[in-house]
UniProtKB/TrEMBL annotation:
Coiled coil: none annotated. Residues 10-248 form the ABC transporter domain. Gene3D superfamilies: P-loop containing nucleotide triphosphate hydrolases. One of its GO terms (molecular function) is ATP hydrolysis activity. This is Putative ABC transporter ATP-binding protein. One of its GO terms (cellular component) is plasma membrane. CDD domains: ABC_MJ0796_LolCDE_FtsE. The keyword Transmembrane helix does not apply.
Length: 258
């Protein structure tokens, strides 16, 4: 495998993750290969239990593979101690979750700045916070606590928090899963803009074709394996993508290297 590939923002090779539950072994991922190029937007789709979150967690260094390699921004995650891995994640990866994961007692501004405080940066530039919040459409919501914000606003705060350390890579697990479809689409548009205008590399786990259609490429997981990688520009709309997705889920497709 060439060094060039390993230097991609995300490079996963032969990744297997097996969970043990008593006597039982569950192969959440089996021999997964995935390369994500700089500044691209990839959606990971698949039925419930197909391994989407496990793959995202591997790429985020939140869990380690049972076998295989994960390189992020050219760094082999296996060589990092847990402490170094946390530091590395803080600098390189922004994480966004379905349930926002905001701290209820803190204002939006403090929620956004939390990763910087955790990294020991005591006095982040207020001008950069204001610019980031304005960019995400929450400039006038910074003093509000999460319970005074709509779901869409809370997710924007969570995305701002993910971007606070200016990471090159944003990993989002079902970022629209708790939102109505109109709000969800506005979050997708925002992620698309972060990719197009700021060249961030974005990975979104979703089971919704209406979310995946915003990406450049969709990889479909089935039983822990990538069974399809497709370019979204080959599909006129989310409905066409949904029809193809259903076909793939229903059929036994060959395993691909992506
Ligand atoms: N910590 C764990 N311990 C045991 N099994 C696990 C663990 N985490 C995930 N699994 C199992 O691994 C498989 C893949 O789970 P994963 O959460 O990655 O799927 P998913 O595609 O994200 O599903 P969903 O769409 O429902 O969130 C499932 O069978 C799940 O039960």
């Amino acid at each position: 495998m060439s060094q060039e590939n390993r230097d991609a923002p995300l490079w996963v090779r032969n990744a297997t993750k097996t969970f043990r539950q008593g006597e039982r072994a569950i192969d959440a991922l089996k021999d997964v290969d995935l390369t994500v190029e700089h500044g691209s937007f990839v959606a990971v789709m698949g039925a419930s239990g197909s391994g989407k979150s496990t793959l995202l967690h591997l790429m985020a260094g939140l869990t380690r593979p049972t076998a295989g390699e994960v390189f992020v921004d050219g760094q082999d995650l296996a060589t990092l101690s847990d402490r170094k891995l946390t530091e590395f994640r803080r600098e390189h990866i922004g994480l966004v979750f379905q349930s926002f994961n905001l701290v209820p007692a803190l204002s939006a501004a403090d929620n956004i700045l939390l990763p910087l405080y955790a990294a020991g940066i005591k006095q982040p530039k207020s001008s950069s916070l204001a610019a980031l919040a304005d960019r995400l459409g929450i400039g006038d919501r910074l003093t509000h606590r999460p319970d005074a914000l709509s779901g869409g606003q809370q997710q924007r705060v969570a995305i701002a928090r993910a971007l606070a350390s200016d990471p090159a890579i944003v990993l989002a697990d079902e970022p629209t899963g708790s939102l109505d479809s109109v709000t969800g689409q506005s979050i997708c548009k925002l992620l698309r803009e972060l990719c197009d205008q700021q060249q961030r590399t974005i990975i979104v786990v979703t089971h919704e074709p209406s979310v995946a259609i915003w990406s450049d490429r969709v990889v479909i997981l089935k039983d822990g394996q990538i069974v399809q990688s497709l370019q979204t520009d080959e599909y006129p709309d989310a409905q066409a993508l949904a029809a193809h997705y259903q076909e793939v889920l229903g059929a036994g497709e060959p395993v691909l290297t992506t």
